[in-house]
Amino acid sequence: MFTSFKRIIKWGLTNFWRNGWLSTATVSIMVLTLLVITVLLTLNVVANAVLANLQSKIDISVYFKLETSEEEILKVKSQLEKLQEVEAVSYVSQNQALLAFKEKHKDNPVLLQSLEELEFNPLEGSLNVKAKESNQYASINQFLESVYYKDVIDKVNYMQNKEVIDKLNKIILDVKTGGLGLSVLLALIVFLVTFNAIRLAIYSSREEINVMKLVGAGKWFIRGPFFVEGVLYGLVAAIVTLIILYPLFYFTSPKISGFLPINDIFSYFKANLLSFFLLLAGVGVFLGGFSTMVAVRKYLKE
């Protein structure tokens, strides 16, 4: 049993080196795919970080009529906080709004003088509402437009922010869809290349295969080396990809770290080198192994 396993490994290695140019081409395509997938994942992290930053700056403000009491505003705040879509609600009183207005326009004495001449505070109390996801503001706005709140709410600035919110939602969707589509396309290319590489390897070994069948070799003794070859494609591709990623992250880290929640992506890469290798090797071995399985089942029938 162990001897047979050693022979399967040995023949798989022999096939890998014997079909040198074919192995090089297959590994190269797989390396390109793993590189693109890694870069794509990195870009996805960058995009998500940027989008999260933008999303954190978007909210809707609910302005209440001047005659609305603080108690009534806080009741609305309490109801909003019970909604699943709401992440946070902050209350800005009339006095806080007035102080903020004076601070903002402290270099405009005419405006401040006009404000002092008024016998009342013209600024409304408000609630700043932040949703968990940018696509949830519409339902929050719908909740605020209910008949129950019409007597106390003056206006909601949802429509002013709607264009920004809609664009943000579209960007998020495009990033996810584009990333998924490109990953599927690259995986398909790797499958086809590996499939054809194994097919050609089977063809070039047809005489040895026929001899083994004649002497009664088992099914897995014949098929095993090709699985070894497919797995080797993935392992070698993962190692080469890591070798390329090391200087790539080293030189690009200072330029992209500012967009990431990680201060130094190169240090993060070094600290998680084993995890990166296991991820890349897992993807490579899966693609190589699956392609080999399909090719072997098709071209090595009983």
The residue-averaged pLDDT reads 79
Instruction: State Rg.
Output: 31 Å
SS field, number of helical segments:
11
Fraction of residues in H or I helices: over 70%
State which percent range the strand residues make up: 5-15%
Structural class by helix and strand composition = alpha+beta
The counted number of beta strands is 4
String of helices and strands: HHEHEHHEHEHHHHH
**Number of structural units classed as domains:** 2
Give start-end ranges of low-pLDDT stretches: none
Q: How can the largest sheet be summarized? A: 4 strands, antiparallel
| Strand line-up of the largest beta sheet | 2-3-1-4
Distance between the termini: 22 Å
Structure description:
It is a single chain. With 302 residues, the chain is of the alpha+beta class. The chain folds into two domains: 2-54 and 169-299, no CATH class; 59-163, Alpha-Beta Plaits (2-Layer Sandwich), CATH 3.30.70.3040. Helix content is 74%, strand content 7%. It has helices at residues 2-18, 20-56, 70-81, 94-104, 109-117, 137-144, 158-204, 206-214, 219-256, 265-271, 273-299, and strands spanning 60-64, 86-92, 126-131, 153-156. Strands 2-3-1-4 form a four-stranded antiparallel beta sheet. Helix 2 runs antiparallel to helix 7, helix 9 (219-256) packs antiparallel against helix 10 and helix 9 runs antiparallel to helix 11. The mean pLDDT is 79.
